[in-house]
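User: What would this chain look like folded?
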Amino acid sequence: MNKVDWAVYRDISINGLWKSNPGLVQLLGLCPLMAVTTNFVNGLGLGIATTVALVASNLAISIVRHLVREEIRIPAFVMIIAANVTLIEMLMKAYFHELYGILGIFIPLIVTNCIVIGRSEAYASKNPPLQAGFDSLMMGIGFTLVLVVLGGMRELVGNGTLFDQAHLMFGEAARGLTLSLGADYKGMLLAALPPGAFIGLGFLVALKNYVDKRKAQTVKTPQAQPIVRITPAGESA
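Assistant: Here's the prediction, encoded as C-alpha cells.
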C-alpha cells in the first residue's frame, strides 16, 4: 500500500481554497456567480450542486482516463459531466423543488461551467482518483465559499436579512433562522441588482489581493541583524 503524501493534499487544499480559488483568482463561473447570489441560500444551493457535480465527474474521469482515446477525450468528458449534472438536477427537482425553481437554468448549465470542464482537463485527466476527487472537492468548496459570502453580503445590504428562505434547503424548522436588521431598514436596491454583484465581487477580490500583499511583505521583511563592533587589534570588543 502506497504511503499517503499529506503534503500533496495540503497543497491541494490551499490551492483550491485560496491560491487558485475559482471565483476570486481564476474568475471562472462568473455567470452563475453574478446571477444567483442574491441571497445566502441561493448561493449555498448552487455551490453544493456544483461541488457534487465537480467531485462526481472528476472521479469518473480520473478512473477512465487511460481508457479514453485522445481524439475523443473532450467529448467523453462532457458526456460524463452531463450525466452527473442530469442526475443532480433530477434529485433537486424531487427533494428541493422550490429551490430548483429559483436556481432554474443555472443547474443544467453546470455542464458548461468552466470550473468543471477546466479541472477535468487540467487535473483529473492526469492524476489518480483520490487526488482528483480531493482537488475537485477543494475547488468546489472554494467556489461555494465565494457564492455564500457574496450572496450573504448582497442579501444583508440589499434586503436587510440573512439566511432568508433557509427552509427551502433545511425544511420548515429553518424558518426561524432568518436574521433581520429591523423593519426600519429600507435596504439598498443596488446590492440586489446585477451591478451589486460586480461591486461585491470586486471588494472580495481586492480583499484577497490585500491579504496576499501583506503576507508577502511580512515574509520579505528582513530581521534585524546584530550590531558588530570593530575595535583596533589587541582591544576587546
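The first strand starts at residue 161 and ends at 162. If you want, I can go into more detail on any region.
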